[in-house]
Amino acid sequence: MPNPPSPLAGSGAPPDLIVRGKRVITPEGERAAAIHIRGGAIVAITAFDEIPRDVPLHEAGDSVVMPGIVDTHVHINEPGRTDWEGFSTATRAAAAGGVTTLIEMPLNSIPATTTAAAYREKLAAAAGKLSVDTGFWGGVVPGNAAELKPLWDAGAFGFKCFLVPSGVDEFAHVAESDLRAALPQLAARGAPLLAHAELPGPIDDAIAKLPKGASPKRYATWLAARPHEAEDEAIALLIRLAREFKARVHIVHLVSSHSLGLLRQAKAEGLAVTVETCPHYLSFAAEDIADGATEFKCAPPIRSRDNREKLWAALGDGAIDFIATDHSPCPPALKLPDEGDFLRAWGGIASLELSLPAVWTQARSRGYPVSRLAEWLCAGPARLAGLHGRKGSISVGCDADLVIWNPDATFRVDAARLHHRHKVTPYAGRELAGMVETTFLRGRKIFERGEFPCPPAGRVLRRGAE
Ligand SMILES: [Zn+2]
């Protein structure tokens, strides 16, 4: 049978590499296809059999070929808290998990990325250590309004803030007055504000009302100390500010389903409000968390099973735009494993390497196809960072960032084999579906079946740079 006319005809040099498979996920859906790669970019996508001779070929067979995952919510903590995590360990974990792009949060490093000078320290600390492409968010903290333009001009992709204490002294939380100073600057540049949406008032009230003698080892105590009203009131405030300043506002790690109505309204109104949730909120339920199991502690907290199902429905109908990990590890001792004290333990969940199988395990049990996963883990987060057109999509002109994975293979999480610096994770021992086989970064194989075949090949991503 003759081949159809080749879109490669007249395009000059042959590709350096072709990756082909029966299940390639493009923006149009899933199909058998051949991805032609030259100079690190996708130069053509053709029918499965339509490939030139004598070009290196990677056969994905029946495994899924998806865009490399874009994780826009990662805490790497270097410099300053490199004993918590670091660029080398975090980005190797990313490569092993099929994550090819990550955007790092402006805390918990020292200094926090709230000045252009601190941004330069980040770049210096990252040099030579990146296994995947990595960009940086700046931060909005009280008093740094004059630093926002320099940070943006230097290459930060947007700005993170906290409306409650962040847990570290270098990154103070903002009041509404601070946001009123920052938002005109952000809106003028089209820069997104990423907000940890909880307000202190409802949390203080809830803590004051905890019964005397409430055990801090009980998960129910942590849940009572962190009521959904804190999240709901913060989100209402952020929506009002987005409307008033015509600003882009992104709600990180949404968990309260009580806010979904307001978020749907804000989107229907046309406000530039976007929302992420996290694999742990989609995987776990408060009812199942054992007393003292502080590896499950994060803020806002993992809520009920019913709440979790409402988050899934919101992903399904688009009220939640995408999924990011909020990978936020710490030395195991800070999780207070002996005391099991939920109120004093560090809040944060390590999951960078596991986002794909964690989300897929839950998604497939609810009947979602792999193509939705590509939207939630790849295209959606790329849009937040303004990287669509380059990352998060198997499209001509995009970087050849690919993850090849077997959706039917299951495995039990052996925490000791994860590549994060510390192995504490609530996924330990769980059976997950979806095995990452091979990861390509700009056409280069950076991970294959447990091995890292090349030295760190990641680059620093700067907003606006090629
Ligand atoms: Zn975070």
Summary, kept brief:
This protein is α/β, with parallel strands linked by helices and 466 residues long.
Account of the 3D structure:
The protein is of the alpha/beta class. Helices cover 28% and strands 21% of the residues. The protein is built from twelve helices and 16 strands. It has helices at residues 87-96, 116-126, 148-154, 176-189, 200-208, 219-225, 228-245, 260-268, 279-283, 305-317, 355-365, 370-384, and strands spanning 17-26, 29-38, 41-46, 57-67, 69-74, 99-104, 133-136, 138-139, 159-162, 193-196, 249-251, 273-277, 322-323, 402-412, 431-441, 444-448. Strands 3-2-1-4-14-15-16 form a seven-stranded mixed β-sheet. Strands 8-9-10-11-12-13 form a six-stranded parallel β-sheet. Strand 1 and strand 2 (29-38) form a beta hairpin. Helix 4 (176-189) packs across helix 7. The model is unreliable at 1-10 (pLDDT under 50). The site of zinc ion (ZN) has 5 residues, from loops.
